[in-house]
Amino acid sequence: MRISFLYLFLSVSIVFSGCIKNDTGCAYKDNNLIAPSSEEQAVLNYITSNGISATKHGSNMYYEIVNTGSGGSPDVCSRVTVSYSGKLTNGTEFDKQSNYVFVLGSLIEGWKKGLPLIQKGGRIKLYIPPSLGYGTIDVKDQSGTIIIPANSVIIFDITLVSFE
User: Fold this and answer.
1) DSSP 8-state secondary structure symbol assigned to residue 23
2) CA 19 – CA 91 distance, rounded (Å)
3) How far apart are CA 65 and CA 127, in angstroms?
């Protein structure tokens, strides 16, 4: 009886072990967020009034690929090195970094969706609606000054230096 139970247990374990997915150790996911049409319209108004020819992403953000790059694209679990600038629609630059390293999945949704559209060495401009950016939260600098007001459309110009 004990041998039959052990045999049954091993047989079931072997059958179901083929169904177990390998854990990559990456905790980041694509949340499949889509900006509401009112936010998409705000982005569209900006790009139209500034004569920008951008492509609509399924998430309702817009982008321009300046250079596609080569050598593969990152995913949300990739450790990326980028150079970028971020600004508001009024032209105010709120951030600029060179050779900045981070895990893509730890960033705002607009970056998670936009950066995989290019490859190593590529450059992209992202026009991000609030819900794919910082949403209803004011972003403040270390002195408490608001640098990105809540509900802002934000624009990033990003070069993907490398990724692993």
Assistant:
1) P
2) 52
3) 12
Name the nearest CA neighbour of 52 among 67, 39, 64, 65.
Answer: 64
**145 burial via Cβ count (<10 Å: 0-12, 13-18, 19+):** exposed
Residue 78 to residue 102: CA distance in whole angstroms: 8
The tens place of each residue's pLDDT in the chain, 164 residues long, gives: 444 333 333 333 333 333 333 445 688 877 789 999 999 999 999 999 999 999 999 999 999 999 999 989 999 999 999 999 999 999 999 999 999 999 999 999 999 999 999 999 999 999 999 999 999 999 999 999 999 999 999 999 999 999 99
CA atoms within 13 A on the CB side of 3: 0
3-state secondary structure of 42: helix
Sequence-distant (6+) residues with CB within 8 A of 101 are: 79, 80, 81
Cα–Cα distance between 138 and 148 in angstroms, integer? 6
